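Escalated from tier 1: 1,3-dihydroxyacetonephosphate holo job.
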Amino acid sequence: MQVIEKIKKLKEEKNAVILAHYYVSDEVQAIADYVGDSFYLSKVAVNLTAKVIVFCGVSFMGESAKLLNPDKMVLMPDTEADCAMAHMADPVYITQIKQEYEDLQVVCYINSTAQLKALSDVCVTSANAVDIVRELPGSHILFIPDENLGRYVAKQVPEKQFIFNPGCCPIHAQMKAEEVEKLKKQHPRALVLTHPECREDILSLSDYIGSTSGIIRYAAASDEKEFIICTEAGVAYELGRQDPGKTFYFPETLPVCVDMKKITLEKIADVLENENGQVYVDAGTAAAACRPLRAMLELAEQAANKKEVR
Ligand code: 13P
Ligand code: SF4
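Tier 2 regenerated the structure:
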């Protein structure tokens, strides 16, 4: 049996649903029930009726889905697919800083381990970080683990005082401004659309800064025909699918997240068949880590409602 047929059959038998991030390979995006950025996928994860969730992404994503759905079976097609940045903050340092500032809010990018989430007040994604930080009480923010996203948010929310943590996404942080400048010279009409995990020198060259879904929506809504895309190359699949008449250029050193590409159709079929790759979070960590995730969903909704009223 063809692997795609096998996945379809197993999905039905097991009452399973497949979620995938835009950075996984094209063929995996093509068979998923829901494809999106981290914020979209976490919203989808709270409203599912299926019994089994197969999460095509890296471990913090499967872990977040499990935290939001403790009674469901969450399967990771490759348990080795991990996000380097998710581990880039020190619990001891967080505990120390908490003691120094009475009004401190620990803001945790969702790209983090459950252990780091458990020490935090609220989670954010690149799609909602600015809106959520604006809503928080107190004036001091410890932003973990991504320094680049933290600095970007700090610029949009100047009324708060930020403490940054030296973590970053190796894929986004290694993009080179010279390569983007070269592309701008070669394609002077092209707009530069950038993810806020990139360094400041790339952000300063950009026409739009936003999450993965934000970049895709911006390109779709624009009348322009050419774009320079500064994020992981997996978005090319959705960009090309929605706008075949537009052209998308990526930096010459193609930004590829090797961990996201570990997810294959064969591994999806295997976890569905054998129910291996199950995500477990110990009960103590789960209770503490779920709180900031739920706080994110609530605050994001509040912020969206406020925008609608305005
Ligand atoms: P978003 O899904 O929030 O755009 O984040 C990108 C990312 O690096 C996910 O790993
Ligand atoms: Fe982590 Fe970066 Fe890969 Fe996203 S692209 S999973 S932030 S290493």
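DSSP finds 15 helices and twelve strands in the chain.
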